[in-house]
Design goal:
alpha+beta; 19% strand; 4 helices
Length: 112
Amino acid sequence: MKKQLITEAEKQRMQKLAGIINEEQTIQPIPEEIEEYIISLFDMSISDEEEDGEPFKEIFDKEGFGDEDGFEPTYNFIKSQGGSITIEGNPDITAKALEDGSIELSGIHSLD
């Protein structure tokens, strides 16, 4: 039998049909407002003293940022995508939904 490549969407459709995953577990494109919120968190966490190529990791907790309009929807979206998403850019930013309700951002600092 000849192997055939399938797209991620086709793979997820087959997994849903087989009962392996449900609708909430399918990978979705990152909504623009979620992406903008994560970038704004990143921008406020980086100081001018950071060096190019230096790794960064910052945790934004629910207590400090939970009242902001974008925090809860962002946390819930990340959680629905398996707990981690990456915004590709310069730099790539990885956002993780932590069990305590916090969001962890990490990546490599870039001056470009």
